[in-house]
Design a protein that fits this description.
heterodimer, A: 618 residues, Glutaredoxin, Rossmann fold, Ubiquitin-like (UB roll), 5-stranded mixed β-sheet, 4-stranded mixed β-sheet, B: alpha+beta, 7 helices, 4 strands
Amino acid sequence: MSEVIKSREDLKNLYCRILEERKRIKFSITICGGTGCRAQGSENLRDAFEREIKKRAWEKICKIKMSGCHGFCEMGPIVLINPGDIFYVKVKAEDVSEIIEKTIIKGQYIERLCYKGNDGEIYTHDVDIPFYKYQKRFVLRLNGRIDPTSIEDYIINGGYSALVRVLCEMSQDEVINEIANSQLRGRGGGGFSTARKWKSCKDAPGDIHYVICNGDEGDPGAFMDRSIMEGNPHSVLEGMMIGAYAIGSSQGYIYVRAEYPLAVKHLQKAIEDAYSYGLLGNENILGKGYGFDIKIIIGGGAFVCGESTALMASLQGEVGEPRAKFIHTVESGLWEKPTNLNNVETWANIPLIINSGSKKFASLGTENSKGTKVFSLVGKIKNTGLVEVPMGITLREIIYKIGGGIPNNKRFKAVQTGGPSGGCIPEQYLDLPVDFDNLSRIGSMMGSGGMIVMDEDTCMVDVARYFLDFLKDESCGKCTSCREGIKQMLSILEKICAGYGEDGDIEKLEEIAKLTAEVSLCALGTSAPNPVLTTIKYFRSEYDVHIKEKKCPAHVCINLIKYKIVQEVCVGCGACIKACPVKAIKGKKKLPHSIDEDKCIKCGLCKVSCKFDAINIE
Amino acid sequence: MEVTKNITKDSKIDLAVVSKIIRKHKDNTGGIIEIFQDIQAYFNYLPKEALQFVSKKRGIPISRIYHVATFYPVFSFTPRGRYIISVCAGTACHVRGAPLLLGTIQRELNISIGETTRDKIFTLEVVRCIGACSIAPVIRINDKTFGSLNPARLLRLLNEYRKELKYE
């Protein structure tokens, strides 16, 4: 039924037609289909709703859709009921008929399914919940509201109007100027000015120019890009189309991680739909004599391919090794042609900047970092999920106001930003406004937006060891300093964690870290020492306790801890004896048990099996 | 593409399938990584015979084929099990106890990372972040993601998968 959109009028007509068609829909049920909610059963929930609607023969008046990630994954599966915009959390298939009876037919809300705040307050709408209230959802505006597999859903929410405006009203330079005025900086980590990149690429000589969307979100603990690609793929496409027009490119690529199959599926569908409406592909989009194609390339699971030159090598079917950037990729990138690469979130910002104007965008944020940034707020935090905040907000606001603080009355220790290239930020900097420059100043970086909160139970030496262990596997091996430097730092950290640390180890770490950072070619190597250096800088006492006292204050490093049964608390129920895989626990029924330290492998199964909290780690 | 079940090292590799995959990507300038992906999607791993065939048909030295294929962690060069368990080793999962999960699976199935159980049912792999950090720690079994796990819940899950096989 789709028709080719040839002009601004056509898009307007299509908009009106969709609006008319949707008038018959009296209710809509939107179920969160993000990976988090899917893992918690949202697909079953959709089936249950569909069965119920079919039973009542409501198919014509009730629309059920599966949206992208709402961000509040902790509370999944999330269901949104309209009219009324009622927001239900932790919904199960058993709740379906009650929701239909009470909420849809009678218009009442079900208290049990509403979000409850710390003070016991009941929230029926998402916008009132503190988790959402203090956010500024700009890029994520439509996530959780639209069906990502429906181009019509995107269009009816203003989608592709920015593209139409750009093609019908603006010259290439005008588009670049508008982006320049917004002062948008790349959201992938580097923070380079987007407009400058575009301009350099446009001005580079050559008849073929490429644009690439970097969807190789490799930072562990970060899933912003995944959620955008899964939840609102058309916004990425529209951004790329606008960028391609400004640069003068007719071919685009989206490089997506192999670990994100749903993102690939949704992007693929979005591209097909855009083709069928003539927004992509033909030589004459909107009758403006301009053509653009997009192809998806799936990555091979290599972290280093997030680096622009490595990504381009991988796109060419080669080993993903970075190269020196004496000549920038905007001049000679993919197949030695001028290539402009931007991150998913950067592309998704473009249509919004065109629509709302660069002035409005630049009014948000700090002096050198404008707009909003999406963070994945995870780790030891009450409200885990995806948050979008204006630049310049403090870490304290993000962690305590939006994130709700640390669960189980534990103490905050650090927040890790920037993935393996970033650093751990201690409590003393919680009031620092978050932007590109401030985070770099204290030894971390913005990165792509992972924000992992750590509490007193997280061992900082182990965290440094963890990141180096990650980087050891992911270093492509081209530079000796990176390949060997990381390995040597890791072996020292492993030694410390195992209880064999010596005086002078910290100094040795610092020396190797300095060398690795100075000599390596790409950002993977130059930033690899950050997790080590920041943990030494801010948590040196923890290193000292590991080295001098052979103890792990956070009870994480396995060689330095012992599991013990508290004799006064143990009731002798035998649950731990059953759970222990190596038969290290002995004891008679109804009498306190004990653990044989020589046999214990410290797997932790006894601790999770104990209902009386009688097992301690020392 | 359907994943063929229970491929063992001895089963013959159907080169007609590989040939079809190569034809599908004949216009790609880059292309070989996509060929590998399709081969793995079909056979569940990259069989030596298939790679040799790609080398011959595309005129790429076998050394280069392996140079590229071994660089990318997603490719496996040995047949994998019916269920591929991917333990997420992302930062959020790490601080919420992923190492305990990994140890539990290794002990329970008696295999190390990258290995397959003798009965060819389970393969254990580690992935760098699935991106389901908010329900950490998570594992994925084939294309299903399971979150908020602890060692006890994980053991129950593995048992459910074993039971499922019995009923088939």
